[in-house]
Design goal:
Number of domains: 1
Structural class: alpha+beta
Largest sheet: 6 strands, antiparallel, barrel
Radius of gyration: 26 Å
Order of helices and strands: HEEEEEEEEEEHEEE
Helix content: 10-25%
Mean pLDDT: 80
CATH architecture: Beta Barrel
Strand order of the largest sheet: 2-4-7-8-9-12
Number of helices: 2
Distance between the termini: 44 Å
Low-confidence stretches: 124-140
């Protein structure tokens, strides 16, 4: 026959194991609020001469996003966007134009969280080319460069529910 203290110890260990298993078995859902700021770092160079409309834009999350004490979007999570406008610099001092938008970020459950963020640069004409008259036709406008490592703030577009493991941090 088992001693009462050994039986009690086994019941406690068994109960803890069941409790831990039950906790892992029930994930929870948390809501990422509309307008939550997501700090993004571009992981590629962008250029108005080489990039074209609809080319992908890649970035990563600079700082984990938490709801309470639960991470819902991990640091380093993939951010995907696309080029919306790209024209190389041209004659008469017309600079290139480049515009892009960030579309979504991957949450910890693998779902896509829609983002609001865009950039537009260039599209100006050099005053020097205008003043120079006909010879201004030989003045070539500059292309727009956005270097790898550029930071941009994006915002969650609409509330989004993310499933996290119970007790997940």
């Amino acid at each position: 026959m088992m001693r009462p203290s050994l039986l009690a110890a086994l019941l406690v260990v068994f109960g803890i194991a069941l409790g831990a298993h039950a906790q892992q078995a029930h994930p929870k859902t948390v809501k990422v609020q509309d307008g939550t700021i997501v700090h993004v770092i571009l992981t590629q160079d962008l250029n108005s001469k080489k990039d074209q409309e609809n080319d992908p834009v890649h970035g990563k999350v600079a700082k984990a996003i938490k709801v309470g004490d639960v991470v819902v979007i991990a640091k380093g999570a993939a951010v995907i966007g696309h080029i919306t406008k790209a024209h190389k610099g041209g004659r008469w001092g017309h600079s290139g134009t480049l515009a892009y938008t960030l579309d979504y970020v991957k949450a910890i459950d693998g779902s896509n969280v829609r983002l609001k963020a865009s950039y537009a640069g260039g599209g100006q004409q050099s005053r020097g080319a205008l003043i120079m008259g006909l010879s201004g036709a030989f003045v070539h406008g500059k292309n727009v460069d956005v270097p790898k490592g550029t930071s941009i703030n994006a915002y969650v577009d609409g509330d989004h529910e993310v499933t996290v493991p119970a007790g997940g941090h």
